[in-house]
Amino acid sequence: MDTSVALSGGRRRRRKHSAEFKAHVVAACSKSGVSSASVAMANGINANLVRRWVKDAEGEREEVGQVVAAKSVKPPATKFVPLPLPSPALVSDIRIELQRGATKVVVTWPSSAAAQCAAWMRELLR
């Protein structure tokens, strides 16, 4: 089947293939034991074009399958169930560990004096 169109002056222009022709070629490629290159040669078209048509057809099937799956799957009806949370543990002390080389210093500060601890840390880190 020749689908080329000749213009005046002997020039060829890009061929346009019908959707039916593309579907026929893709269906021929889907048969077992048939290569897309042999189908392309039998129809007088480039093998890369056939592979692209097959890839596009597979992509359309996946998109249609995803749309159908998205429409058919309904999320289960759930009801909000509040759960009691445990009360936060009260921190009684602020613990700071400083280490330089082999020397390690641990400072424990009462949490009631957090502002004084912050002032001490600022002074220490100057």
List keywords for this structure.
single chain; 126 residues; alpha+beta; two-stranded antiparallel sheet; 4 helices; 16% strand
Question: How are the elements arranged and paired?
Answer:
Elements: E1 5-6, E2 12-13, H1 19-29, H2 36-43, H3 47-72, E3 93-100, E4 103-110, H4 114-124
Antiparallel strand pairs: 1-2, 3-4
Helix pairs in contact: 1-3, 2-3
Describe this structure in words.
- The chain is α+β, with helices and mostly antiparallel strands.
- It folds into two domains: 15-72, no CATH class; 93-124, no CATH class.
- The protein has helices at 19-29, 36-43, 47-72, 114-124, and strands spanning 5-6, 12-13, 93-100, 103-110.
- A hairpin with a 5-residue loop joins strand 1 (5-6) and strand 2.
- The protein starts with a strand and ends with a helix.
Brief characterization of the structure:
With 126 residues, the protein is an alpha+beta fold. It has helices at 19-29, 36-43, 47-72, 114-124; strands spanning 5-6, 12-13, 93-100, 103-110. The protein has four helices and four strands, in the order E-E-H-H-H-E-E-H.
The strand order across the widest sheet is 1-2
**Helix segment count?**
4
Number of strands: 4
Helix percentage: 40-55%
Rg on CA atoms, Å: 37 Å
Biggest beta-sheet profile: 2 strands, antiparallel
What form results from the Cα inertia axes? elongated
